[in-house]
Amino acid sequence: MIRVLVTGAGGPAGVAVIRSLLRRPDVELFSADMDGWASGLYLVPAQRRRIIEPGAAPGFTDSLLALCREDSIDVLFSTVDIELRHIAPRKEEFVAQGTAVASPSDATISVCLDKFALAERCAPLLTVPTTRLLTTDGKSHNWEFPVIIKPRSGAGSRGVRLIEDRLTLDELDADEQMIIQENLPGAEFSVDVLSDLDGRVICAVPRTRERVDSGVSIAGRTVKDPALIETATAVARAIGLTGVANVQLRYNSDGEPALLEVNPRFPGAMPLTIAAGADMPSLLLDIVRGTPIPDRVDFAELANVRFLEDVFVPVNEIIHSEHNAHPTGIDEG
Questions:
Q1: Cα 317 vs. chain centroid, distance in angstroms?
Q2: CB burial string 295-311: b at 16+ within 10 A, e below
Q3: Mean local confidence (pLDDT), 17-31
């Protein structure tokens, strides 16, 4: 049996990974979250539920290393951005004690979480909206308004503003932690991408976000669009992706898909990708375990509408913790 630990069990991505791996008879699944009310905790037997520290806590990685060692975890799936930032630089420590980490590399995560660095990396290889730092030089560019300003790092739409004219842009204080970006007028798509440990793209599944609630897609459909697949594949190669990432694209005024950002983790809408035929959590488990997988995985065009589902457990099974505020991973695409 393969012992697998999935963290972020309160978020839609964590639940999607847990439900995927629960279908495998060769997996003994553990789930973890900082919050005892995280629903994904209760999808596994009581003896395999774990409460962990918040990803931003100073001792988070050390405590997770100890947990994986004590539980003899073979593979760790983290589904939370802040956790991955701290886990990725120490992947070799996990490997040294027998735990493979099913995530992109530290270098890939770092470039994805810096939107300016990501644009600079990808611009020579694919269509990227014009992107400048919010500096005097950046503001002086010959922009076509409106433009977007957003933080260099951060998830969801926090800090994003539409700037309608030159006067408003010029009045903004310079801030190298913010970027100015060309506003793309076309439809937006998310593409879930899986690459093997050599960086070879196994599948890229574009999907729409027809309805979004709290940053999470609750209705959408997969689409077989070669331009989207080719662009997302080029992004994956540019960032050296190994594992799963979510590439967000939007069509520009010339009808070309252009890069918006990359989330270097499982997205919240992963159940649609899995149902369409690309079971990325299971495939990634095989990849990190060295089990042969197909060179290419196809998918079907499929739509979904998400609904609220209750998990019922005896009261005495609820895990009490000091972090019982909100489950992790709520701002996932």
A1: 30
A2: eebebeebebebeeeee
A3: 98
